[in-house]
Specification:
615 residues, 28% helix, 25 strands, globular, Aconitase, domain 3, Aconitase, domain 4, 21 helices
């Protein structure tokens, strides 16, 4: 039986057996830390007295807060600069742009290679057949020091996209259609190889758009089908040529999926959930206050050209703000030389310096309470781009909406638009609350403590959070990312989940958090794990976990177990958990539930106190 693309890349970077589900020691060609995670990587390395394995393959990229508008970020950035100087490796500083894009432009990692970063969208490099992975601070510190990370070989889903979309659709619309099909966890823990006429027609920028939203589908990575055109484009971009790997014709796939996009029209993702995708025509006419064009998903020169063609000779609607942020400095200069900046300024657009922008707190693209924006980003979780409501769409739709002041497809500009009464602006309803139930005996009983004996046995009080796809912004909001003191992180745990804001004050060391499916979806931030470590949470039991979140927790010594115990356990139940066997006992009536235990590799990491603890 042949190998899938991800299996072939992993096999070339490990001496271990490569089988689906096998945990291997994966050699890493390129290792990157960003500005918010970099300082924590430095702390881990210095605390454990570790050196840099290969300075030539190690980099910092400062893209989250290039304006230095936050003292915490600027402090962390400079700490990283000083560390890089001492150890002799390169920093792509605040003027260079989004790190994953710089990696492609500078040929730091290419087809067939492996790349890890503190950026949860490092899998964007699937666009160029590179195995990219977002990981937490501990993983990246390990890669910096040892040149490798542990990794579980994922299964691969083969996707065939049939049909030809309409002339009005873009790569972002195609990507949203695929996201709509799979939802937020339809590819959870899987690699995906995607082919079909519409996929193979994508240029490099379009492939980047598609690959960049793998994380929003729960996927490890998405590999769009190889094309000669993409190979030529990458060579032109990076200045070098590399041999692209291919899956074997007889590769073994987890499943074969066929979906039809024939006649596909522009789409939009409604606020709160990237996968809540609907035809733009269904909600056309919804008033908007602002629009944002940029991010790792749609910040390439092709995206800016698309917007400029629509904006040229026109002006942004009165009372609407349009913000444009190129992905990298190279894109910025190209836009300047091509006259796109003149077009943007003539239309009344705010053009900012290159970087991640709206995905990071305090940067261009944030929204205020009640503000409705159209964004070309990849996430619109509550609070992700501020306190407003965020629609996800293509650059063309964002530009047309900014011009008209309402959600509008670009090909509809100039047509008479009848706005349905249902779209007239109303004061937004507050999000439905998820009320946190306080354990009844909590006030009178002493705080529960983990037993510690035998190793791998946890005993504590349960807290049941019955929600699916609780993302890392809900667990630990991005406005607190400059915090580097783990003890301080605890106070922000679950602070963006309605009804759970006071969880840090009510939880006690040893308590057990019981959660739903896809817990920890979203970014790679280690903070979303460390906030629970700071509170002394004994373990988290979930129906399933975001793949990056799961390894971040294991590496930090916070055990996770997989099993859906919602409805079986209730907030306030005292339980005993055996990490080695997956046996969960409710102590009130000695009822036992059997769930998936930790693997031997995960147990070893837990028992020694974390990935970087003494071996």
């Amino acid at each position: 039986m042949g190998r899938t693309l991800i299996e072939k890349i992993i096999a070339a970077h490990t001496a271990d057996r490569v089988e689906v589900g096998q945990i291997v020691e994966l050699g890493v060609d390129t290792r990157v830390a960003r500005d918010f995670g970099g300082a924590n990587v430095v702390s881990h390395l210095e605390r454990h007295g570790l050196q840099i394995d290969d300075p030539a393959s190690t980099f910092f990229t400062f893209d989250c807060n290039p304006t230095g508008s936050d003292q915490g970020y600027t402090t962390n950035q400079h700490r990283c600069r000083l560390f890089a100087r001492r150890h002799g490796f390169r920093v792509f500083d605040i003027n260079r742009g989004i790190g994953t894009h710089v990696v492609m432009e500078e040929d730091l990692a290419g087809p067939g290679q492996t790349f890890v970063s503190t950026d949860s969208h490092a899998n964007i490099l699937g666009a160029v057949a590179t195995f990219g992975q977002g990981m937490g601070d501990l993983d990246i510190a390990h890669a910096f020091a040892f040149g490798s990370v542990w990794f579980k070989v994922p299964p691969t889903v083969h996707v065939r996209v049939e049909g030809i979309p309409s002339d009005h659709t873009t790569a972002k619309d195609l990507t949203l259609a695929i996201l709509q099909h799979f939802g937020s966890r339809g590819l959870l823990g899987c690699s995906a190889e995607i082919e079909g006429p519409s996929v193979e027609a994508l240029d490099l920028a379009g492939r980047i758009t598609l690959a960049s939203m793998a994380t929003e589908m729960g996927a490890i990575i998405i590999f769009p089908a190889f094309t000669e055109e993409a190979s030529v484009e990458l060579s032109r971009l990076s200045g070098t040529g590399r041999q692209w790997p291919h899956p074997d014709p007889d590769a073994d796939y987890l499943s074969e999926v066929v979906m039809d996009v024939d006649g596909l029209e522009p789409l939009v993702s409604r606020p709160g959930h990237p996968e809540d995708v609907v035809p733009l025509s269904d909600i056309e006419g919804e008033p908007v206050d602002s629009a944002f064009i940029g991010s790792c998903t749609n910040g390439r020169i092709e995206d800016l050209r698309s917007a400029a063609r629509i904006l040229e000779g026109r002006s942004v609607a009165a009372g609407v703000v349009l913000k444009v942020v190129p992905a990298t400095d190279r894109v910025w200069i190209e836009a300047l030389n091509e006259g796109l900046i003149d077009i943007f300024k003539g239309a009344g657009v705010l053009v900012s310096n290159c970087g991640c922008a709206g995905c990071a707190a305090g940067q261009v693209g944030q929204t205020g309470p009640g503000e409705v924006t159209v964004s070309t980003g990849n996430r619109n979780f509550p609070g992700k781009q501020g306190l407003g409501s965020v629609y996800l769409a293509s650059p063309a739709t964002a530009a047309a909406s900014a011009l008209s002041g309402v959600l509008l497809a670009a090909h509809r500009l100039g047509e008479d638009l009848v706005v349905p009464a249902s779209t007239v602006r109303q004061t937004p309803e507050p999000a439905a609350e998820t009320v946190m139930e306080t354990p009844a005996e909590k006030a009178d009983a002493p705080a529960s403590e983990p037993t510690g004996e035998p190793a791998g046995m946890i005993e504590g009080v349960a807290w049941v959070l019955d929600l699916d796809s609780v993302d890392t912004d809900m667990i630990y909001h991005n406005r607190h990312l400059s915090v580097t003191d783990i003890d301080e992180m605890g106070r922000y745990a679950l602070g963006n989940v309605p009804g759970w804001e006071d969880f840090p004050q009510k939880a006690a060391p040893g308590d057990i958090l019981v959660v739903g499916a896809n817990f920890g979806a979203g970014s790679s931030r280690q903070h979303a794990v460390d906030c629970f470590r700071a509170l002394g949470i004994g373990t988290i039991i979930g129906a399933s976990f975001g793949s990056i979140y799961e390894r971040n927790a294991i590496n930090a010594g916070l055990p996770l177990l997989t099993g859906d115990l919602r409805g079986l356990l209730h907030t306030g139940d005292k339980v005993r958990v055996d990490l080695e066997t997956g046996r969960v006992e409710r102590l009130l009536d000695n009822t036992v539930f059997e769930i998936t235990p930790m693997s031997p590799v995960q147990l070893r990491i837990y028992r020694r106190g974390g990935l970087l603890a003494a071996r």
